Structure formats: C-alpha cells, structure tokens
Amino acid sequence: MSPSVWFSKQRVASTVILLAVFMTNLDLWIVNVALPAMGSSFAASSGRAATLGSLSWVLNAYAIVLAALLVVAGRMGDRVGQRPVFLTGVTVFTLASLACALAPDLGTLVAARALQAAGAAAQLPTSLALLLASVPAERRTRATRNWAAIGGLAAATGPVAGGLLVQVDWRWVFVINVPLGIATVAAGLRVLPSTTRTEQGRLPDLTGALLITLAIAALSGGLVQAPEWGWLDARSVTLFVLALLSAAVFVRRSLQHTHPLFELPLLRLPQFGAASAGTFVFGVAFAIMLLSNVLWCQEIWHWSALRTGVAMVPGPALVPVVTLLTARAAQRLGHGPLVTAGGLLFAAGMLWRACFASLDVNYWLDLLPSQVLGGVGVGLTLGTLVAAGVSSLPGHRAATGSALVNSVRQISATVGVALLVAIVGTQVGPAQRQDFRAAWLVAAALSVAAAVVGVRITRTATRTREAAALAPAPAASLTDQRSTA
Fold first, then answer.
1. 79 CB neighbour count, 10 Å cutoff
2. What is the mean pLDDT of the segment spanning 89-112?
3. Which is more confident, 266 or 322?
4. Strands (E), 255-393
5. Which residue, 454, 111, 102, 428, is CA-closest to 296?
6. Whole-structure pTM value
C-alpha cells in the first residue's frame, strides 16, 4: 500500500471515529432542548401533564446507564478487541435511536434511552484506542485533545441542533442518528484498524455495575422527588439511604474484587485523581447551565425551541475556536493554568446570569454575555480536564482510563440535572425566578472548585518536573567509562 493511500485511510478512519464520538455526545445533550416539546406531546396523548421531574429521566436514564457500562465496555474492548466492540456499540445505538423516535409514551422512551446508552457505552472508550491506533505516534497527543474537544463541542452544540430538529418534530432528534449510524458502520467495516487484545480473563465486576447504577439512580430520584414529597418524607429518606448504602458497598466491593468495575487505585495517581475531581464538579455546573438556559428561554421567555437554539449559538461557536487556539498553550503552559482560567470564566458567566437575568427579555444584556463567558470557559476546561487525566495514564490503560473519566462525566451530568430539578422544582414558571438564581450561584461555586483543581494539577506537574530534574543520572556503562578513559 502506497504512503498516500495509507495516509488517506488513516484520515478516513479518524473521521469515522470522531463522527461516532460526536453523535454519541451530541445525543446526551440534544434532548435538553426537546424536553418541553416531549412533555407537551405526551401530555396531549395521555391527558396528563408531564412534570420536569418525570421528563428529567429521559436525560438521566441515558447518563446513568452510560456511566455504569463505560468501564465494562472499555475492559471488553481490551479483551475482545476495540474494533468489534466499537462497531457493535454503533449498531445498538442506531437501533435504539429508532426505538426512541417511535416511542408511544414516556416510559417506553426512557427504556429506549437506556438501551441507547448501552450502545454509547461500547463506542466511547473504544473510540479513543482506535483513534490512537489510526494516527502516527507523533500525532497522538493532538488526537487525544481532538477526541476530548469533540465531546465538548457536541455538548455545547446540542441545543442548537435540537432547536432546528424540534421545529419538524421532537422525534427527529433521534431519527437523525439512524443514517449517521448506518454510514459509520459501513465505513468502519472498511477502514477501522484491527487492534490487538491487551488483556485476557474475566470481565469487570457486573454486580458492581448494578450497584453504581442503583446508587446514582437512587440519588437522582431522591433529588428529583424530594421537592414534591418533602426532604424528610420517608420515601425521600429511603432513596438517599439506599444511594449511600449502594455507594458504600460498591466502593468496598471495588477495593476487594479481583476485577473491579472501577480501578480505584488509578485515582491515587495525582494528576488523574485531580482531573477526575475537576471533571465531576465542572460537569455538574455545565449540566445546570445547559438545562437551566433551555428552561429559562422556553418556559420563562416563552421562546420556541428554534429561537432558543439560535440564541445559544455564540457559546458553542466559541468552544472549538478556543480549543484550537489553546492547543499550543496547553503544551507550553500545561493543563492546569487552562483549567483554572476556564473555571473562573465559566463561574463569571453564571454570576452574570444571576445578576442580570430578568423576566423581561433582554438577550444582549442577560444571555449573550453569559454565553460568551461560558463558551470560552468550556473550551478551556472540559477537553483539557479529560486530556490531563488520560495523558497521565499508562498506555495499556488508555481505554479503561478514558472510560473511567467519561463515567465521571456522565455521573456529573446526572447529578447536575437532578440538582437543578431539586432547586427549581418540578413545575417551571416565572415564580421560580429566584430558584434559577440559586442554581446559577451553585454552578458558579462548582466552577470555582474546578479552577482550584486546575491549581492542583499545576502544582502536581511542577513537583513531577522538579523530581525528575533532581533524580540522579543513570550510571555510565562500563563501555562508556572505557571510552571516556
């Protein structure tokens, strides 16, 4: 095969992989802008109004299952091979998207979203390993950053794409995945590289996957239902206790199991542990921002889904620009300073909304400045945190480690949506104005915490460099000594 043909095949393979990653990440967030339309559609067909609490499970069912299965799929890729697991995931995701589009009621849609998440779980961790195998060694750092940036770009552009599709019908937010999925599988069968199996033996602890699913679902359910039931109601307390016990058993089982779901010792790596913590707190803030802006525009300002999506264009448009412009800065300055700057800018965007949001529509004073600050903040922070974590892992743990980082991202999204519902309530209207302000203040505080994590990452990198500089040089070999003599 000539070098030009090989180079072309590499580029096509990279494009196929990044397209699948974009599609999967986009679907996690594109549904946000369609939630009000879904509620109206199911209310018309059933005769009962759908609350924000019940609709939130369309988002959280996806995020919870995705978080629980990412590591299982990552390990399966290590054992079976990244290529077959990736292609199976795309196939399941495509079929589940069709089921979502045809769902006759909310319960069926939530179940189909869970199946869709299972397909996404097989795609995301294996995609990074396939991408690294598709590019030359000298381009792997850039490829990792592009892979992380695609996720941030898809999350930021979800409302825009959703607004356009909802103008036709909310079901089109799922229909659009079907041709993309078919094209990805068809091209992937021809151009994706065959990777070697790096591990053998048993799959990770599946009981652990059930435990973490139960813990996140119980926590989300408690946060979503507590405003309606009461925070001290027996049902709310039961859910919170169940979440705590499930999480405790999961941690204990992970520490004792020979093949745990989450390799908790990876979190002891200073940079990986810090990046995971930063990914969680920033992910919660990001989820609060995204859904709260959609709800504010559609339920408070009474904008259409399309107008809402168009109004959010400035933020998403800045994400890829900032990511590309800061690629060299990340290599020169390190990941930490970018995370710190991004966290502070995102916090400033949330504080701006808390100060200037008004029931009277004033896009130029209220939403636009917040979108600009938030877009720059996301571009600096989200992809950089993922890259900081993955780049600190041993090479043979790339798929498993990236799965763990992405599990943290999905857990944070679930917590963010549930926390917003807990603060704002299940019915959204002008009366919740102060509740929205409280949610934005919480998001700002979490973003500041992410900025502090950036400082920690910087200090860790500095100590690592200093330790390497102070380490004694290896002793010269006997041959070198004789040559010098």
1. 14
2. 94
3. 322
4. none
5. 428
6. 0.83
CA–CA separation, 415 vs 229, rounded Å?
19
Please give the Cα distance from 454 to 439 (Å, whole number): 23
The CA–CA distances, whole Å, from 64 to 56, 67, 176, 356 equal: 12, 5, 23, 34
Q: Which residues contact 225 (CB under 8 A, 6 or more apart)?
A: 53, 235, 236, 239
SS (H, E, C) 7-55: HHHHHHHHHHHHHHHHHHHHHHHHCHHHHHHHHHHHHHHHCCCCCHHHH
Tokens at residue 1, please? 């095969």
Q: How many DSSP H helices and E strands does the chain contain?
A: 19, 0
Let me know: does 414 contact 360? Beta carbons within 8 Å: no
Q: Quick one: tokens of 289?
A: 């921002």
Which position has the higher pLDDT, 129 or 272? 272
Q: Calculate the average pLDDT of the chain.
A: 83
Question: Quick count: other Cβ atoms within 10 Å of Cβ 168?
Answer: 11
Please, which pLDDT band fits residue 297 given cuts at 50, 70 and 90? very high
Residue 361 has pLDDT above 70, yes or no: yes
Share of the chain above pLDDT 90, in %: 34
**What pLDDT, on a 0 to 100 scale, did the predictor assign at position 481?**
43
CA–CA distance, 41 with 264 (Å, rounded to integer): 43
Which residue carries 């970018």 as its tokens? 338
Tokens of 116: 């869709």
